[in-house]
């Protein structure tokens, strides 16, 4: 299970060290794709296939086709090196303005990468709405 939050620094060669716990869960290869809310998504190959298969099933709807193009068209498969580092593709790194510190956030079946300052702002905003969000989730039977 991919859970937790870590802050790591990108080295001079654009490599990002993955937390040890995530390395064990993700294996030797991952797929990095453009995410939403100023993040990048990182999937294991198996989870990536499940995700794109679900998108393909609903590709007759315009929104799904558009999101599929965004997600799949911008994705890259990358290796995790012997030291547990990944190379973030330059186009995805620039998309977020990542230049130094990265928040690595586990979300059960995927990991999200955020520019640290963007993550902190986003997290603070969500924290101020936590009660309201919990009430909404309770009203639809999730909490």
Could you explain the architecture of this structure?
With 143 residues, this protein is an alpha+beta fold. The protein is built from six helices and eight strands, in the order ββαββααββαββαα. It has helices at residues 20-26, 45-57, 62-73, 90-96, 116-128, 130-139; strands at 2-9, 15-17, 29-34, 39-43, 76-79, 85-87, 101-108, 111-115.
Summarize the SSE layout with pairings.
Layout: E1 2-9, E2 15-17, H1 20-26, E3 29-34, E4 39-43, H2 45-57, H3 62-73, E5 76-79, E6 85-87, H4 90-96, E7 101-108, E8 111-115, H5 116-128, H6 130-139
Antiparallel strand pairs: 1-7, 2-6, 3-4, 3-5, 4-8, 7-8
Q: Quick one: overall form? A: globular
Q: In percent, how much strand structure appears in the residues?
A: 25-35%
How is the biggest beta sheet arranged? 6 strands, antiparallel
Please give the share of residues in helix: 40-55%
Strand order of the largest sheet: 1-7-8-4-3-5
Instruction: Give the ordered list of helices and strands.
Output: EEHEEHHEEHEEHH
Tell me the number of strands.
Answer: 8
Task: Calculate the terminal CA-CA distance, rounded to whole Å.
Answer: 20 Å
Structural class estimated from helices and strands: alpha+beta
Mean pLDDT: 90
Please summarize what this structure is.
The chain is of the alpha+beta class.
Highlighted features:
143 residues; alpha+beta; 6-stranded antiparallel beta sheet; 43% helix; 29% strand; globular
């Amino acid at each position: 299970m991919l859970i937790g939050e870590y802050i790591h620094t990108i080295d001079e060669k654009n490599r990002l060290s993955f937390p040890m716990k995530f390395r064990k869960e993700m294996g030797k290869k991952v797929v990095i794709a453009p995410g939403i809310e100023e993040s990048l998504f990182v999937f294991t190959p198996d989870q990536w296939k499940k995700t794109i298969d679900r998108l393909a099933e609903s590709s007759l709807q315009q929104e799904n086709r558009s999101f599929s193009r965004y997600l799949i068209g911008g994705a890259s498969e990358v290796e995790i090196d012997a030291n547990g580092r990944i190379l973030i593709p330059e186009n995805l790194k620039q998309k977020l303005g990542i230049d130094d510190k990265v928040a690595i956030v586990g979300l059960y079946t995927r990991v999200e990468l955020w520019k640290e300052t963007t993550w902190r702002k986003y997290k603070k905003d969500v924290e101020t709405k936590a009660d309201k969000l919990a009430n909404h989730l309770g009203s639809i039977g999730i909490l």
